[in-house]
Design a protein that fits this description.
Number of helices: 3
Helix content: 40-55%
Number of strands: 5
Order of helices and strands: HHEEEHEE
Strand content: 15-25%
Shape: elongated
Strand order of the largest sheet: 3-2-1-5-4
Structural class: alpha+beta
Radius of gyration: 22 Å
Amino acid sequence: MSQEGYDKLVAELKHLELVERPKASAAIAEARDKGDLSENSEYDAAKEAQAHLEDKINRMKREIAEAKIVDLSRLSADCVQIMSKVEMTNLANNAKMCYTIVSESEANLKEGKIAITTPIAQGLLNKKAGDEVEIKIPRGTIRLRIDKISLA
């Protein structure tokens, strides 16, 4: 994971713990004050929302504890690896594409960041500029030519 991705994750966790958790507790207290808990759907909904929040917080804590920060200075642009920005051409229609290969938690297709676990990223790993690859994707097979590799 990149340092930037790690920092975002830590900031989001802090927000959940310091802002969202107190909101969830307040919602439960407010619903509890409305009377009979056996027929109080607001209370049930607030408790369920709190359980989802706590689950998310625990998953994020685990992800942060297991995170390994990628040292960009130790990477090379000779071949595709995590944190590589890959410019390529779809050989079927000559469409240009550019993706940065990142950890699963940092993946964001709108930003052109794909998870290292995706079929396209897996098909590109360890390939060099100029290589042509065939990658099986859910819709069939795609043929790509790697035009340029740089570090994100």
